[in-house]
Automatic annotation (TrEMBL):
Keyword Endoplasmic reticulum: no
Gene Ontology MF terms in the entry: FMN binding; oxidoreductase activity, acting on the CH-CH group of donors, NAD or NADP as acceptor
InterPro entries named among the record's database cross-references: Aldolase_TIM (IPR013785), OxRdtase_FMN_N (IPR001155), Oye-like (IPR045247)
Tagged with keyword Metal-binding: no
Keywords: Oxidoreductase
Source organism (scientific name): Sanguibacter keddieii (strain ATCC 51767 / DSM 10542 / NCFB 3025 / ST-74)
Essential cofactor(s): FMN
Protein name: NADH:flavin oxidoreductase
Taxonomy, superkingdom: Bacteria
Length: 357
């Protein structure tokens, strides 16, 4: 492995031992009320050698829940559950960032505690199939947020960030990617608003920037990361031709950069010119994850000066000791996709380490 991967790095307020991290991955193992239980603490504690541990998407409110079994971070019970997770990660030398994810229209009333219609920038269905207690159903047409409601949603993110810090987390990652609410505001085919939050590149960026500013004001900018995924066609989004995507995201990153956030997390789908523009504009750390890397390519973006941190997803899911396996060039366990979202220990906390094998 490239020596650059093993260099220590300062990210915000935390000192990381190397340039790896745990990528955020939905695992659907929370309790019915959204509290992460002991099994979740075990899972993240097992992977703490990755240094920066970014959690699965965690809803800041009941409206924010999309899927069954996802955790929340807005009640006292949630805070207590996350405290056990933070303690487990810290005991093994890792740093915990809780990803704040509002699913927006990628939801179904049957999956939420209040069973209300999903909310979104506009009343446009994602037309996505999702699992519910009665089986697969199509996501319904959401309710467009009223202009005055947006401030309430921003406050939900603020409260969730404060709750994560109260639980002992080292920071939070704002999820503005992968087809969820903040990404929906950025995408012209999901955002048909005619108020200050829709229409122009500047207006479509406004909600994301206001969320980031509020969260940074609440817990400190150096404890906040933000994730984006330009051109990612998840959740029925279509951000248009390349020049439109460049205009949208160069403006957005230009507005976010002065906030001094701890990092920009790019879920990259191949536009290296755009990634280079982000790197040039961003004053702190850049975290990049991309599909299809071989283990020999993990450090390529770091060596090219495009990234500071290279998160691992499925490899880390199936190998709690993936750091040791990379250092020693040991074989990986193969992930079992049938258990990704199935609940319980199987395919979650029972993958063997090298010592166990």
């Amino acid at each position: 492995m490239a020596s650059s991967l093993w260099q220590p790095f300062t990210l915000g307020r935390v000192e990381l031992p190397h340039r790896l991290a745990l990528a955020p991955m939905t695992r659907n193992r929370a309790e019915a009320d959204g509290t992460p239980g002991p099994l979740v603490a075990t899972y993240y504690g097992q992977r703490a050698s990755l240094g920066l541990v970014i959690t699965e998407g965690t809803q800041p409110s009941a409206d924010g829940q999309g899927y069954l079994g996802t955790p929340g971070i807005y009640t006292p019970e949630h805070v207590e559950g996350w405290r056990a997770v933070a303690d487990a990660v810290h005991a093994e030398g890792g740093a915990l960032y809780v990803q704040l994810m509002h699913a927006g229209r990628i939801s179904h009333p049957d999956n939420t505690p209040h069973h209300r219609q999903p909310v979104a920038p506009s009343a446009i269905s994602a037309e996505q199939e999702m699992f519910t207690p009665t089986g697969p159903q199509t996501t319904p047409t959401p309710r467009a947020l009223e202009t005055e409601e947006i401030a309430t949603v921003i406050d939900e993110f603020r409260h969730a960030a404060a709750s994560a810090i109260a639980a002992g987390a080292d920071g939070v990652e704002i999820h503005a990617a992968n087809g969820y609410l903040l990404h929906q505001f950025l995408s012209p085919n999901a955002n048909h608003r005619t108020d200050p939050y829709g229409g122009s590149v500047e207006n479509r960026s406004r909600f994301v920037v206001e969320v980031a500013r509020a969260v940074a004001d609440e817990i400190g900018a150096d404890r906040v990361g933000i994730r984006i995924s330009p051109s990612m066609p998840l959740g029925g989004l279509d951000e248009g031709p390349r020049e439109d995507v460049h205009a949208q995201y160069l403006h957005l990153v230009g507005e976010l950069a002065p906030l001094g956030l701890a990092y920009l997390h790019v879920h990259h789908v191949g536009d290296d010119e755009l990634l280079r523009s982000f790197r040039d504009a961003w004053p702190t750390a850049v975290v990049v994850v991309r599909y299809g890397r071989t283990r020999e390519q993990i450090a390529d973006d770091i060596d090219a000066g495009l990234a500071d941190i290279a998160p691992l997803g499925r490899w880390a899911l199936a190998n709690p000791d993936v750091v040791d396996r990379l250092r020693t060039d040991a074989a990986f366990n193969e992930p079992d996709p049938s258990t990704f979202y199935s609940g319980g220990e199987s395919g979650y906390t029972d993958y063997p380490t090298l010592a166990q094998a």
